[in-house]
Amino acid sequence: MSSPLLVLDKLTFSRDGNALLKDADLEIQQGEKLVVWGDNGVGKSSLLKLIVGLHNADAGDIRLTGKSCKAAHDFRELRKRVGLVFQDSDDQLFCPTVLDDVMFGPLNLGWRHETAKAKSLAMLTRLGVLAIANRVTFKLSGGQKRLVALASVLVMEPDLLLLDEPTNGLDQKARHRLIEVLQNLPQALLLVTHDTQLIQQLDARVIALEDGQLKPAVVHAHQHVHLHVHTQSQGAESDHSHAELSG
């Protein structure tokens, strides 16, 4: 197996006195699709922000293709290869028009204006929203904003895409389009979601954030959708805990 794209090594993080991560470990391979599941408030969104340096870990290491990220300049380099799509698109979109928002990242990376515009228009076309390129961003629907936010990250051609509850608040048409896009991306994906249908449609590896640890998990579809969390004990046998996801 090739070297991991991203490694989280004994990552520890506390917020407001609560330990959300405790020596948590994770490896992500090139092109892999992973889902992080967990109860509200356990730190799933914080995990994504830690990866891109928007939060500072208390201890542990984040390595991208073997390079440890500690200082601010390390994370600036990491964010050229790892893109985060926020849960609330309004936190990500701030330029006058859709095209301006999608071009912002490439221009900030030093791309020539002509190249940034051409690639931004191509990405909007790929996501099926070219018709709104000159629209005022804050007047768009929730589904349109989500696709524009995704375009603003994908246009920079990241190796790893982080998404926080990407299907939240979307109607069926927008949700279907988003899932279709995610299914066909070559990038590695790390998603935080409670959308069990999305998990199954992406055929993603599932990990659960529980008690500060990232634990392997399996989703079984029955009359209700259940998540079986399998954690490895110190001995040879495994401990099995069981949590239900609302379908």
Describe the structure.
The chain is α/β, with parallel strands linked by helices and 247 residues long. Helix 3 (98-108) runs parallel beside helix 5 (142-154). An 8-stranded mixed beta sheet has the order 6-7-8-3-9-10-11-12, with helices on both faces. The protein has a 4-stranded antiparallel beta sheet with strand order 2-1-4-5. It starts with 5 loop residues before the first strand and ends with a strand. It is globular and about 45 Å long. The chain has a single domain (6-194), classed as Rossmann fold (3-Layer(aba) Sandwich), CATH 3.40.50.300. The chain has helices at 44-51, 72-78, 98-108, 113-126, 142-154, 172-183, 196-202, and strands at residues 6-15, 18-28, 33-37, 59-64, 67-69, 82-85, 160-164, 188-192, 205-210, 213-221, 225-232, 238-244. The chain contains 7 helices and 12 strands. Belongs to the ABC transporter superfamily. Residues 6-236 form the ABC transporter domain. One of its GO terms (cellular component) is ATP-binding cassette (ABC) transporter complex. One of its GO terms (molecular function) is ATP hydrolysis activity. This is ABC transporter ATP-binding protein.
Widest beta sheet: strand line-up: 6-7-8-3-9-10-11-12
SSE order, as H and E?
EEEHEEHEHHHEHEHEEEE
Label the CATH architecture: 3-Layer(aba) Sandwich
Question: What is the highest CATH level, the class?
Answer: Alpha Beta
Helix content bin: 25-40%
- Find the count of extended strands (DSSP E, 2+ residues): 12
Contiguous low-pLDDT stretches (5 residues minimum) are 227-247
Q: Give the overall silhouette.
A: globular
Number of domains: 1
Secondary-structure class: alpha/beta
Q: Summarize the biggest pleated sheet.
A: 8 strands, mixed
Task: Give me the Rg, rounded.
Answer: 18 Å
